[in-house]
Amino acid sequence: MRALLRPLFGRRARLRWIHLILGGALAMPYVLVGAVVVGPVAGSTEVFSSVVLQLASFAVGLPLAAVTSLFPLTRPLESAAVRWLCGVDAALLADGPARGRAAKGRTALWFTLHLGAGGIVAGMSLALPPFAAVLILLPLAAVLRDTRLGLPDVFEHTWALALAPVAGVASLLALAGCAAGAGALLARWAPALLGPAPEDRLAAAEARAADLAVRNRLARELHDSVGHALSAVTLQASAARRVLDTDPEFVREALAAIEETTRRTVGELDAVLGVLRDGDAPGTAPAPTLAADLDGLLRRTRAAGPTVAATIGAPLETLPPVLSREAYRIVQEGLTNALKHAGERVTVTVRVELRADHLEITVENPLTAPPTTRPGGGHGLTGIESRTRLLGGTARAGPADGTWRLRVRLPLTPPSAAPGPPGPRHPLEEPS
């Protein structure tokens, strides 16, 4: 019995019934406006005393509901109600306002159906339960038979009184069946009428692409900043431990470099995580640039043990801020790779030179062992390639004359045209 009654009185059926009653409540203002129009036309001041005039008012009010459904908030609110009360998957519904004539037309049709079906079911829900209760109690309560309550004369017969409770229960089941059927139909039609249009899918795809671009940007920043800091601090601590008893001055320099590296990295990490925290303001730590911190980057790298020979043939202070920031990260990643793969007792050569129309960055270190791929790694040079491509430059990395060479060329003026398909790329051989 419970399985038979669940489609009529189960939780989902009850929630859909509530959804229909809400539609009836929303329809009431439009019915009142319709009554203002129907009353004078019919020459009656008692519109709600006539079922025919009530239906006429209802019919006049529904077109008004279709017009007001064009307000932008209608579709988001209706979608939320359908999602929570009708059990429709959120992925099948549009969240934002309707765009375009077709989407607005579907929203108007849905709103009209919701209010129309809701008004009918809500009216039945108000009228039928009291009537059914009277029928069920009629054979048992003499006072109900004496007052008659406007019941048909047929209930004066004994057989009619005996069947009255059956008719009352049947009317309640009919009400539940109408509500369940109307709710199921609305739930089935909701994805077609409230679902995303092609414009909505395009807007959602653009939003996801923008979000992915931001996440990729933050991932690159974290990889370059934290990855370099951890590699440098590990080598600095290792070098300091080995000469702790023989070279106290080197140990002091290494500890100072570790302190400076971690302090700067914590500031950069806080700035990046501030963007990720929902509701938090971004961190205030400035993004490092060649002009602001190239000397410090080279000094901290030398504290890890390697000899870093730097040739700076460009006025770093005059470089565009975006170019200077991205170039800093490229040099940082090149030095990180050198620390991880060449060792701490090697000479790393860094050249930053200004050519006619581009900035050229070269990082070289001895190729002490064949390049290997670290488990879970392999993102550093991919990040360099991504940064370079966004600025319209080129990047090449790989063995060259017994050394590992990273060479990047960045145009001084980034491309101003709208982004299009990426052009030819130089493959980067990824050792890290």
UniProtKB/TrEMBL annotation:
CDD domains: HATPase_UhpB-NarQ-NarX-like. It is an enzyme of class 2 (transferase). Its EC number is 2.7.13.3. Residues 326-413 form the Histidine kinase/HSP90-like ATPase domain. The keyword ATP-binding applies. Residues 411-432 are annotated as: Disordered. Residues 215-279 form the Signal transduction histidine kinase subgroup 3 dimerisation and phosphoacceptor domain. The chain crosses the membrane at residues 20-39, 51-73, 109-142, 162-187. Pfam families: HATPase_c, HisKA_3. SUPFAM superfamilies: ATPase domain of HSP90 chaperone/DNA topoisomerase II/histidine kinase (SSF55874). Keywords: ATP-binding, Kinase, Membrane, Nucleotide-binding, Phosphoprotein, Transferase, Transmembrane, Transmembrane helix, Two-component regulatory system. GO terms for molecular function: kinase activity. InterPro entries: HATPase_C_sf, HATPase_dom, Sensor_HK_TwoCompSys, Sig_transdc_His_kin_sub3_dim/P. Residues 412-425 have a biased composition (Pro residues). It catalyses: ATP + protein L-histidine = ADP + protein N-phospho-L-histidine. The keyword Transmembrane applies. It comes from the Bacteria. PANTHER family: NITRATE/NITRITE SENSOR PROTEIN NARX-RELATED, NITRATE_NITRITE SENSOR PROTEIN NARQ. This is histidine kinase. It comes from Streptomyces atrovirens.
